[in-house]
Design a protein that fits this description.
Elements: H1 2-15, H2 17-26, E1 38-43, H3 48-59, E2 66-70, E3 84-88, H4 90-99, E4 104-109, H5 111-120, E5 130-134, H6 139-149, E6 155-160, H7 168-177, E7 181-186, H8 193-202, E8 206-208, H9 221-231, E9 235-237, H10 240-245, E10 249-252, H11 255-272, E11 285-288, H12 290-296, H13 303-309
Parallel strand pairs: 1-2, 1-3, 3-4, 4-5, 6-7, 6-8, 8-9, 9-10
Antiparallel strand pairs: 10-11
Helix pairs in contact: 2-11, 3-11, 4-5, 8-9
């Protein structure tokens, strides 16, 4: 019972972090600094995911912060027009980071995408002026999820493309520390995808998807799901859409959770005029597909029980 009580308190604090920070900020002596803060929310395009998050973000900030939403990232404002750019998506983040000296907070991009942009930046922009709230979950959290969901399955399969900047050796060490083994298979080209997948499934107990558009996209996901299902290998996705399509489960951060964290970061910036180090999502959602579990003969715990047993804090910074 004490453990459950601590978990409930922790979850409550995480979910209300944005609101708590807003209250503290509003009544602090430095709160007047936010009155003239101008935030440009730059979208990679005008599709629903970016529009929705931008709208949610606007409702989570006090009226004293001026928020402008720009749908297309081609034209970046000057320093006289904004104080902070919040860039949503890869395209917006690339453009903002390379074409302005304004501080840039990126969101809705995976860690590998951020690392690639950072590597391309010239010396004119220091890394302290370009930070991010990653789209993907910390790998330790993914491992906790799999270990809690499927404790008997110790071989975790992972497909990746060589140009995707993920640290496979680091991930192998993390898996070993969790008492599991990472079976990572490179996909050299798109025409080699399914031969690599078949080989991986023969040597794995579960397949974990990571953000990589070359591997996981609208043209491939259905056949990947079919291959895992026929092999009896559970597939762990990256979002609600993966679970709806047929993945066994996923741990991800919703737009509400991301927008709360972005809003809290903006409020902190309004006071300190500094961006924090890159962050993984603090709060997360667990979603399971009970129909797929029954088909695979897997008995699932409740999402509340899985969350209670997971220990990852999300502070991983490899």
């Amino acid at each position: 019972m004490p453990s459950l009580f601590r978990h409930l308190i922790s979850s409550y604090l995480l979910k209300t972090a944005g609101a708590i920070l807003w209250i503290l900020f509003a009544f602090s002596p430095n709160s007047c600094r936010a009155e003239n803060l101008r935030v440009l929310v730059l979208l990679s395009d005008n599709t629903a995911p970016y529009q929705t998050l931008a709208n949610k973000l606007s409702t989570r900030l006090p009226a004293s912060i001026q928020v402008t939403v720009q749908e297309h990232p081609e034209k970046i404002p000057t320093e006289n027009q904004a104080d902070l750019i919040v860039a949503l998506g890869i395209k917006a983040s690339q453009t903002a980071a390379s074409q302005t000296r304004l501080p840039v907070l990126a969101a809705m991009i995976p860690k590998a995408g951020y690392d690639e942009i950072l590597a391309q930046l010239t010396e004119k922009k220091s890394s302290t002026a370009f930070s991010v709230i990653y789209l993907d979950q910390p790998f330790s959290r993914q491992l906790d999820f799999i270990q809690t969901l499927l404790p008997e399955r110790r071989r975790i399969g992972l497909l990746y493309t060589p140009n995707n900047l993920i640290n496979v050796n680091y991930m192998r060490r993390q898996a070993s520390d969790h008492g599991t083994k990472l079976i990572a298979k490179p996909v050299i080209s798109s025409d080699k995808l399914f031969s690599a997948l078949d080989d991986l499934l023969e040597n794995s107990d579960v397949l974990l998807a990571l953000p990589d558009n070359t591997i996981y996209n609208n043209l491939t996901i259905r056949n990947i799901l079919l291959s895992t299902y026929r092999s009896g290998i559970p597939f762990i996705g990256m979002s609600q859409s993966y679970v709806t399509a047929g993945a066994l489960g996923a741990v991800f951060s919703s737009q509400e959770q991301i927008s709360d964290q972005v809003a809290a970061t903006i409020l902190a910036f309004a006071s300190s005029k500094a961006l924090p180090e890159p962050q993984y999502p603090r709060d997360f959602t667990i979603l399971l597909n009970n129909e797929v579990a029954r088909s695979l003969g897997i008995e699932l715990q409740s999402t509340d029980e899985i969350r209670r047993r997971m220990s990852s804090s999300g502070k991983e910074t490899p």
